TrEMBL record:
This is Transposase. Keywords: DNA recombination, DNA-binding, Metal-binding, Transposition, Zinc. One of its GO terms (molecular function) is DNA binding. Residues 1-47 form the Transposase putative helix-turn-helix domain. Residues 332-398 form the Cas12f1-like TNB domain. Residues 198-319 form the Probable transposase IS891/IS1136/IS1341 domain. It holds the Pfam family HTH_OrfB_IS605. In the N-terminal section; belongs to the transposase 2 family. Residues 414-452 are annotated as: Disordered. NCBIfam families: guided_TnpB, IS200/IS605 family accessory protein TnpB-like domain, IS607_TnpB. It comes from Haloactinomyces albus.
Length: 452
């Protein structure tokens, strides 16, 4: 048995009193965050002003400690004055805001000192009631599933709240003693209250390989995915299917908007239209998520090794013509799902280098084309006269890449793998003599993710 942290999310159906209590807790979280941030900003501004006056460093106003424990200690000392209503909510609401502030400040400080990889994070901003997502986390107290039935959850100071769907999957794990709820996070998303339970769950050891072979997966916009086995998985285009209705609702909301009034002061009809827009976006997001889960589960259950590309999705979204279609595919989400599902099920995930020319390389002879335009949907090889679908050719190259990785990590000879499925249209007699791997000079070999 191996222990993993897994999240279970349920949509809540609270009463009016419970919904008001949830809003109050999220407001308390936001108030504690803004209070602590105001103190930190005032302290930093005071020290900066003293430096401009020529005050020595050892004579400056002492700096505040940004740790969560120090912030919580200061909050407990000042809450009677700054928040006389603090007793209306659980202490976890304020602890959530202070913990989020401590994390945000540490991330900003680490990036400022060059101790954190990636893009530098900006200084934390004050949380807005309208701009930020209301949320609150509970890690102590009575929280988790209800003992009475499988349609309710327990939350501190709020009580037993009904859920829209059954919690039986998690309840069965808890009854068997293979799961323990670590925390519960309540949030307001897409017009609904949701609770996400972080669960420490015991999973069976990864299953042995199914001898399903290797598959290369080429993601795209025209087709969601093209497999090296020759199968083409169509792109459902959920957002495009809802565009007509979405445009109509957005035009309706624009007509009902009253200039000069804030969103909370708009008419009841405007708010009703916004609710319909949120429900439509929720439907699109859920349909996309469901399709990606079904595809990733199928790939992991049918194949031992899955080969994909390290796509720079954020850079691809800069294309104004295709940005909406690329975002609708959910490429990053599909890779995230495949990553953890291969680990849980004992499969191997190989990620090709970002600069690997899978589309430009001939899957039969290995010759790399100097240029291949995006409009060319059929690959024509000038050396061996191969004519193949562009995406299928790329998927075949990705599948062959798994054999090269195996050869580079073991002393066995390169060749056709034992687990390779029959009938692969991309595998030819000339594949074993492909020169090189097509990588640019200085690029690294593909990364391999195996079950541990």
């Amino acid at each position: 048995m191996s222990s993993v942290i897994q999240a279970y999310r349920f949509v809540l159906d609270p009463t009016e009193v419970q919904a008001a209590a949830l809003s109050s807790h999220c407001g308390g979280q936001r108030a504690a965050f803004n209070w602590g941030l105001a103190r930190v900003k005032a302290n930093l501004a005071q020290r900066e002003a003293e430096r401009s006056y020529g005050v020595a460093e050892d004579e400056l106003t002492p700096s505040l400690n940004w740790s969560f424990y120090s912030l919580r200690k200061d909050w407990n000392a000042a809450k009677h004055e700054v928040a006389p209503w603090w007793a209306d909510n659980s202490k976890e609401a304020y602890a959530t805001g202070l913990a989020n502030l401590a994390d945000a400040l540490n991330i900003w400080n680490a990036g400022k000192k060059g101790q954190r990889k990636g893009r530098k994070a900006g200084f934390p901003r004050f949380k807005s009631k309208h701009r930020d997502t209301p949320s609150c986390r509970f890690s102590t107290g009575a929280f988790g599933l209800s003992n009475s039935d499988r349609r309710h959850v327990k939350l501190p100071r709020i009580g037993v709240v009904r859920t829209h769907e059954s919690t039986r999957k998690l309840a069965r794990h808890i009854e068997r003693g293979t799961a323990r709820v670590r925390s519960a996070t309540v949030s307001w998303r897409r017009g609904r209250w949701q609770v996400s339970l972080s669960v420490d769950i015991e999973r069976d050891e990864p299953k042995p390989a199914t001898r399903g072979g290797t598959v290369g997966v080429d993601l795209g916009v025209k087709s969601l995915a093209v497999l090296s086995t020759g199968e083409i998985i169509a792109n459902p285009k959920h957002l495009d299917a809802a565009q007509r209705k979405l445009r109509r609702l957005q035009r309706q909301a624009a007509r009902r908007w009253t200039p000069g009034l804030k969103p909370d002061r708009q008419s009841k009809r405007w708010h009703q239209t916004q609710d319909r827009i949120r429900r439509l976006h929720t439907y699109v997001a859920n349909a996309r998520q469901d399709g990606l889960h079904k595809l990733s589960t199928r790939l992991v259950s049918e194949f031992d090794t899955i080969v994909g590309e390290d796509l720079h999705v954020a850079g691809m979204l800069h294309n104004r013509t295709l940005s909406r279609s690329i975002a609708d595919v959910g490429m990053g989400e599909l890779r995230r799902q495949i990553t953890y599902k291969t680990t849980w099920n004992g499969r191997t995930l190989v990620i090709a280098d970002r600069w690997y020319p899978s589309s430009k390389t001939c899957s039969a002879c290995g010759v790399v084309k100097a240029k291949l335009r995006l409009s060319e949907r059929t690959f024509h090889c000038g050396e061996c006269a191969l004519v193949l679908n562009r995406d299928l050719n790329a998927a075949c190259n990705l599948a062959a890449l798994a054999g090269e990785v195996a050869c580079s990590t073991s002393s066995q000879s390169c060749g056709a793998t034992e687990n390779e499925p029959d009938g692969n249209p991309c595998k030819t007699a000339a594949s074993s003599g492909a020169p090189g791997n097509g990588y640019r000079h200085g690029k690294t070999t593909p990364s391999v993710v195996k079950a541990t």
